[in-house]
Specification:
44% helix, Zincin-like, single chain, alpha+beta
Length: 109
């Protein structure tokens, strides 16, 4: 499976209730972050709990998964697949308003 297919598989495996709550968010894959080449993923936008009626019509939030740092850090294919899953879920958690401290408690750091 390609890197893109692994990211898609994580999204496809989301429970229907969780997947149905995703709105106005795009998940994209880039080679690496221009300012932080070690970054695995990044959420940019307004977390779902902070949205108001004024948020209507805004550009979609974006979750970016960075391929190169993940592939370079996790050369073992099984570890890479697991870290892709963790990274996608980590960034989705930010979309749902979960902060870094809580993610560490949940094991998604």
């Amino acid at each position: 499976m390609s890197f893109q297919e692994h990211v898609k598989a994580v999204l496809d495996s989301l429970p229907p209730k969780l997947a149905g709550a995703l709105e106005n968010v795009a998940v994209v894959i880039r080679d690496e972050h221009p300012d932080d080449p070690d970054l695995f993923g990044l959420y940019e936008g307004t977390p779902l709990p902070e949205r108001t009626s004024m948020s209507a019509g805004e550009l979609p939030d974006q979750i970016t998964i960075y391929r190169i740092p993940l592939e370079e850090t996790f050369s073992d294919p099984e570890e890479l697949v697991e870290e892709i899953r963790i990274t996608v879920l980590h960034e989705l958690a930010h979309y749902f308003g979960i902060d870094e401290e809580r993610l560490v408690q949940l094991g998604y750091d």
